[in-house]
Amino acid sequence: MRRSVHNDATRDKHARVWRRRKGECVFIIAPLGQDAETMAALLDAEGFETQICRRFDEYSGRITDGAGLLLLTEEALESSQGSLLLDLLKAQPPWSELPLIILTRGGESRRVGLLNVAARAAGSVTLLERPISTLTLLRSVQVALRSRRRQYQVRDLVTQFANLNEKLEHRVRERTAELSAANRQLENEISWRKGLEGQILEISDREQQRLGQELHDGLCQHLTAVAFMARSVALRLKNHRVIEVKDIEKIAQLVNNAASDTRDLSRALHRIDIDAAGLVDALRDLIDREIWRIPCRLESKPSFRVENDIAAGEIYRIAREAVINANKHSQAREIVIRLERVENEMVLRVIDNGVGFPSEPKTKRGLGAHIMGYRARLIGARLEIDSPKEGGTRVSCYLPDNTLQSKERKNPQIRSSPRKNHESISRINLNFLHRATR
């Protein structure tokens, strides 16, 4: 029988402890007599957490986070610490209205006075007239703690909302910064493209004039000489004079020269569609042309390979532009086109042993360098122009291996869009019209 009574008491103790929750401590302020100890013992027996406060500093630091309610007597409000308590209640955060249960002995007028004083500091006030029953006190404490729990829920929601709002503002700032950066990049790209369009028009006008001069000074002179000699031969035949064989041979030679010049011009003006398989052959054909003043040779290592047709076409055009510039400006004795693999990159180098490239950063690069850089960016490569220690100029184009193949798989339309860009440049890039005879 004793064992049963002991077990029931243990279960009742555990049940009372289980009802305790964090932040629901009942602060008891009763400066006179044994009221504080009596109420604490009663509430402790029912499983509530209590704390008797004798001094102001015992509860001032926990008034919002640890307190579930304040249980105090009217003497506590009338004491020297009463005004401090009311000021502390007024300073609560917006979500908090710490419940007050005030025990009073006075009549109706006294209760109204206490209620008015407390209501100005706390939003939730309950007046209980002494003597009170145990059940009334317990029910009042339960109701007050239930109200406090809802306040804690509001606090948690406010905190959660503030955190979400802060995260949202942070994300908005990030997105704004990203959009601003993208907008600046787009503006720079538009400005760069406008500048490139101006350069293209300048090249077009300049090379159109050069083409006219080339035809006038070259092909037209040959044809004029052919017409003059043919007229001379016709006069000899008309007058029944002897025609020398060397005159006929001279006419044939002039016609052949004119045909050769026309063929060179045609090959220069005709855009060749280069694919990956024919890149090396196309470069070999480029260096074998008779229009170059400076001898050219090709060095191709077996490790060099390009599997993308668009990349092959742009590499060919970069090499051609570099050879053209070397013929125009380098004053070199030889030009070398070198194809090799360096680590994970396919590298095209065009090297001459001429006067070199200016190393000053303020030196303005020509249109050819800008166009080569544009072509390199189209295929995801990088272009470097420098002067080696041994002298001359070196144009290097570094193409990451397998990069273009993955890009092509992700974006099948890559074959159409970039081709339009480099075709427009190829049609006006006529720098290679310089003849070897100049």
Q: Return Rg in Å.
A: 48 Å
- Sheet having the most strands: 5 strands, parallel
Pattern of helices and strands = HEHEEHHEHEHHHEHEEHEEHH
Number of helices: 12
What class do helices, strands and sheet pairing give?
alpha/beta
CATH architecture term of the domain at 272-433: 2-Layer Sandwich
**Topology-level CATH name of the domain at 272-433:** Heat Shock Protein 90
Can you say what the CATH homologous superfamily of the domain at 272-433 is?
A: Histidine kinase-like ATPase, C-terminal domain
Number of strands: 10
Cα distance spanning the termini = 127 Å
Proportion of strand residues: 5-15%
Describe the structure.
The protein has helices at 2-18, 35-45, 74-78, 82-90, 108-119, 134-238, 245-269, 279-287, 309-330, 367-378, 403-410, 417-428; strands at residues 25-29, 50-52, 67-73, 100-104, 125-129, 296-300, 335-342, 345-352, 382-386, 393-400. It is an alpha/beta fold and 438 residues long. Among the domains are: 2-132, Rossmann fold, CATH 3.40.50.2300; 272-433, Heat Shock Protein 90 (2-Layer Sandwich). Strands 2-1-3-4-5 form a five-stranded parallel sheet, with helices on both faces. It has a five-stranded mixed sheet with strand order 6-7-8-10-9. A hairpin with a 2-residue loop joins strand 7 and strand 8 (345-352). Helix 6 (134-238) runs antiparallel to helix 7, helix 8 packs parallel to helix 9 (309-330) and helix 9 (309-330) runs antiparallel to helix 10 (367-378). The protein is rod-shaped, with a radius of gyration of 48 Å. The model is unreliable at 1-18 and 403-438 (pLDDT under 50).
